[in-house]
Give the backbone structure.
Amino acid sequence: MAHDERGHSHSSANRRRLAIAIAIIAVFLVVEVVGAFLSGSLALLADAGHMVSDLLALVVALVATGIAARPATDRQTFGYQRAEVLGALFNGLLLVVVAVVVAIEATGRLFSATDSLVQGTPLLVIAVTGLTANIVVMLILRAGAQTSINLRAAYLEVLGDMFGSIATIVAAVVILLTGFEKADAIASLLIAAIIVPRATSLLRDVVRVLSEAAPKDTSVAEIRHHILETRGVVGVHDVHVWAITSGAPVFSAHVIVNRSVFAEGRTGALLDELGACLTDHFDVAHSTFQLEPVEHAAHEDRHHD
């Protein structure tokens, strides 16, 4: 129950963070588009395109968080928490697409024989404004990014855009001081190089959840050791640890116990002890144990991990 209340609290807070972030990004997106046309800067227009991807990512994250908060049903027995993971998958792929498009465009500009006329001052002012918006949004999302893979995806989108704003600022300064307009293309290639590793890391975490692998920071061997140290337990098999979404690990196992546990009516106490162990030491949101007497375990078809 405490886990459910804590999860609901996190979900509500994350939705508020996302709603505020969407409002800020939407306002500064309009500013960047207008600024791009006023300054004649393709770099600023490209950065505005990146901000569009940010806005889309935040909207997807908000929708996914709302769906994930819906209660479980007889059909969706774990609820809709996987919606957050699917939202993160979408945003991770979007990051990759943005990186590829930016890299292709930057390469084309870098080797282009002609330069475009860019007004450095408007470019610099609007890029600084965009950077300010990105920093504010990142501060809003940072706390939620620690507990939600969905918010982490949105956070990485905005982080990538922040680097884009910094690169645009540097390019604007170089253009103002030297007139070297290729600085914009070089900065764009750096942005793409920064985005890809973050997108790869995010997608790796998404695949881990969707493939029902053990959570990254969870040691199955350590959990097995804790169970075996519990009084009355003589063996454990069919151990499974996976996650419905980030921060929500699930555990199941068959636990072989002494006959005395059944004879003395201590099964309930043992289940409470095992459940408390996993909650306290491993922060497992939901655990299921099948208690088996030794004679039953001896003829069961086991599938050991």
